[in-house]
Structures are given as C-alpha cells and as structure tokens.
Specification:
mainly alpha; two-stranded antiparallel ribbon; 3 domains; 21 helices; Growth Hormone, Chain: A; 2 strands; 506 residues
Length: 506
C-alpha cells in the first residue's frame, strides 16, 4: 500500500493536511450538532404530530441506536471503499436524511428518516479522526485534533441555542433543512480536495461480529434510553440490559477468535491491551458520563427553576463553547510539546471545580456567577476531548486508526446515553423524595407554598445529580494518571516547510 504524507502541497502552496482539516470540520460539525439541536424542538414536534412525549423520545432513541449499530462498521467500509469514497457516501446519507426529516408528515416517517440520517452521521467523526491521523505526523496531531475540536465543542453547545431559536421564532423543519446546504458544500469539498486511501489487502466482513455487536449495542442503548420512562428496576429494562451485555460478551469471544484465525475482525478488541488506549477510553467513558450526560440538567435549571424560555436558556450556555474552543486550540499545541497529561490534569481540575459549584447553585444564584461557572467548564472540556484522542491513538498502528477511532466514538456515546439516563433518573426520583419530605415537615400549606416546596425539591435533586457527575470526574482523574505517552519529537525541523511531495511505501 502506498500513501502520500500530510506534508504534500497542492498547487497554491497549501499543505494537503490542512485541506483535510477544512473538509472534515464540516462533516463532524453537522453530525454532532444534530445530536443536540433536536432536544429543544421536542415540545414543538409533540404539538405538530399530536403524540405523547414517550413516543416522541424515539426521535432521539432511533438516532442513537442506529449510531451504535453503524459506527463499528467504519473500519470495514473505509478499507473496502476507501476513506474518501466512504466519507462522501456518509455525507450523502446524512444530508439526504436531513432533507427527508424536514418533509416528515408523521412521527413514524420522522423516525425512519432519522435512521437514514444516523447511518451517515455515525461514521463522520471517526472518519475525520482517521483522515487527520493519516496525514499529520505524531508531533502535530495535538494541534490538528485541537482545530477539529472547534467543531466538536461548538456543535453541542450551539445546538440548544439554535434549536431554541427555531422553536421560538421559526418552524421545526428548519432544524433539519439547515444541514442540507452545509452537507452539499461538504460533499463538493470532499470530492475536489480529498485524496483516496484504499487497502491493498482483501477485506473480510465479520458478519457474526456485526450481528452480535448490533444486538448488544441496540439492547443496551434501548434499555438505557427507556430506563427514565420504565424505571431502572423494571424487569423488562433489567432483562434487556443483561441480554445486551451477554451479546457483547459473545461479541468479544467472536472477535478474538476471528483475530486468531488471521481474519480482520469488525472491532479489534485487542486494542484494549494497548495501555494508553485502555486508560484513555476509561477516562473518555467517565468524562462522557459526567459532562455530556449532565447537559440534560441545564435546561431543567434554566427553564424550570429560573423561568427562561428555550432560546434564552440556550444563550445562557454560550460561554461554554467559546472557552472550550480557546482551551482546545492552545491545549493542542501544549500536547504536541509536552504530552497529553500536562493538559488533561488541569482540564479535570477545571471540570471538577465547575461541577462542584453547579452542585451548590440555587434559583437565586446570580447569572454572572453561573456564566463564570460555565466558562470554567468550557475550559475543562477544551482541555480534555482532543488530548484524550491523541493519547488513545498514540501507540495505535496506522492500519487500525479507523477501528480505534470508531471504538472511541462508540464508547463516548454509549456512556453519554448512560449518563443522560442515570442523571435524569436521579433528578426525577430524588425530586419526588425531597418534595415529599419537605411537604411533610411543613404540613398543610397553600398552593404558593407547595410550588416553592416543589422548586426546592427539584433544586436539591439537581444537586445530587451534579455530585454524582463530580464522582465520575474524580475517578477519571485516576484513569488519566495511568496514561503513559511520551511526547512526539519531530523528525524534521518544520514539517510544514518540507518541499514537494514525499511518497512513502508501506
């Protein structure tokens, strides 16, 4: 197999690797934005389709389940079709799915079109990481992933604001239609600017592995998504979780056996024998649980306790993405010079301090202080996501970038879903307990007093949820301590100034 390194220049003098960055930012931004922008539109969709909220949850659940099934296939299709061709196909599916969602005439059609959308969106981010790590030398990957983090960090924070604006001032189809022109631009750029990378070896599709991975991930994500509705103690939820875990255990045995027979597994679980990959993904799971899972708590605080509308609630969270982007860009350069742990430890300190303060907020907390807490939280996030990606792939062979990055993505959204379900359950159950205890202490009260008791009970329940998130960050701190990645020394003084293209045989 032959490939062209990222130091190659195109006509006009722009290094090819930077063109790759420009192209993949579009796709990764769209796929991540769409995971959060729909949340604030759920009440409007409920009215438009005349359905109950539990049925409407499938708009999000179907997207998540499809991602869980499709993401592990990234490596196979990237090797079989080529990274460029598969990236364009993924963009096309996502763009087509977005357009179809906008014309959905009822809830079943919207759920079906969300599945189409998720088929494309599931692979966009792992493919972006694969393309970047193929072109950038080890000593520049921190900067590359830091720039990619601009899209990965801005999208989930802008999503609620954008969705809130549409809910307040426009109609819901715009949430999906906005992806169409961006997707078309991304497809054209990918066709014109990206170079193809294909595998010279024959690629084997691991059908048994795919079947058990699909069953296991679908069962687990379905149970997690419905736990807040049916309850964690529901026999149906417990049996579904156990069945999913058993399917994933069989999947691991199948993948190990496939590897021993010299064939290409769907997911090479032997990657977890790689120390930095294992430690980084343990931290990745805990941070996804604590941060992305707790995003569901902010609308509860801002809208139910502070009385803001969806758009105002979204605007209040804007400091987070801006400080996150700043930290990611600066942190990327630091990672390249000193290694990931120098950035990861401060990031977890920032995240822990902000979570501690969120566990103490009240309905009378000043908005200025709340904005400062979110800004600090953004600094923490910006110091965590891209250094963890760099450390996870630091000792992974180039031939396994697609597998490693897709596995990293699966872990992130599985634990995000787990975080959302558990933290939402904590708020619901603890709010009921606190409200009951407070009402019992006060005795018979007026309607106004009862409303204050419910508000206080909800506030105390939010405190419990943030304390649980803080525990996850503390354990992640320990996991980061086990990451051992030496900083990468450049083999040339300035790779960006290398003349001409260099052909490297593999």
């Amino acid at each position: 197999m032959q490939f062209i390194t990222g130091t190659n220049r195109r006509e006009g003098g722009i290094p090819y690797k930077w063109l790759v960055v420009i192209v993949v930012i579009f796709g990764s931004f769209m796929s991540i934005l769409d995971q959060t922008v729909v949340n604030n539109a759920l009440p409007r969709l409920q009215t438009a389709f005349g359905v109950d909220f539990n049925s409407l949850q499938w708009v999000i659940t179907a997207y998540t389940l499809t991602q869980g099934v499709v993401t592990p296939t990234t490596a196979f299709f990237a090797n079989r079709l080529g990274t460029k061709r598969f990236y364009v196909i993924a963009l096309a599916f996502f763009t087509l799915g977005s357009a179809l969602c906008g014309i959905a005439w009822n809830l079943p059609s919207l759920i079906l079109f969300r599945v189409v959308q998720a088929i494309g969106g599931a692979t966009l981010f792992p493919l972006a990481i694969t393309l970047l790590f193929t072109e950038f030398p080890p000593q520049q990957r921190g900067l590359a992933t830091g720039i990619l983090s601009v899209s990965a960090l801005m999208a989930p924070a802008i999503g609620p604001t954008f969705g809130g604006y549409i809910v307040t001032y426009a109609d819901w189809p715009l949430i999906f239609y906005i992806n169409v022109p961006v997707g078309i631009i991304a497809i054209v750029m990918a066709l014109l600017l990206l170079r193809e990378h294909t595998s010279a070896s024959r690629v084997y599709f691991d059908l048994p592995g795919f079947v058990f991975a699909a069953i296991g991930l679908t069962a687990i994500l379905y149970a997690i998504s419905n736990a807040t509705i049916s309850g964690w103690s529901s026999p149906y939820i417990i049996l579904t979780l156990i069945g999913g875990l058993c399917a994933l255990l069989l999947f691991v045995f199948i993948e190990l056996n496939t590897s021993r027979r010299g064939k290409q597994p769907l997911v090479d679980v032997r990657l977890f024998a790689n120390g930095p990959f294992l430690s980084s993904n343990i931290a990745n799971a805990l941070i996804s649980f604590g941060f992305f899972g707790s995003l569901i708590l902010f609308p509860i605080y801002t809208q139910e306790l502070r009385g803001l509308d969806a758009f105002q609630s979204g605007l209040l969270t804007l400091p987070l993405p801006f400080t996150a982007v700043l930290a990611a860009i600066i942190g990327g350069r630091i990672v390249d010079r000193f290694g990931p742990r120098v950035v990861l430890f401060p990031g977890l300190v920032f995240m822990g301090l902000s979570t501690w303060q969120l566990a103490l907020i009240t309905p009378t907390t000043s908005y200025t202080w709340f904005l400062l807490i979110l800004a600090l939280r953004g600094l923490g996030l910006g110091c965590l996501l891209q250094p963890l990606t760099v450390s996870a792939l630091a000792k992974v062979p180039q031939s396994q970038y697609a597998q490693a990055s897709s596995l990293n993505t699966v872990i992130r959204f599985v634990f995000t879903s787990l975080g959302i379900a558990i933290l939402a359950t904590v708020v619901q159950s603890r709010a009921t307990v606190y409200t009951s205890d407070l009402a019992h202490q006060v005795g018979l009260t007026s309607h106004a007093t009862l409303a204050l008791i419910k508000q206080q009970g909800l506030n105390l329940a939010l405190h419990d949820a943030f304390w649980l998130a803080l525990v996850a960050f503390l354990v992640a701190f320990l996991a980061v301590g086990f990451i051992r990645v030496q900083k990468q020394r450049p083999q040339v003084k300035d790779a960006a100034l290398e003349p001409a293209a260099q052909i490297v045989s593999e």
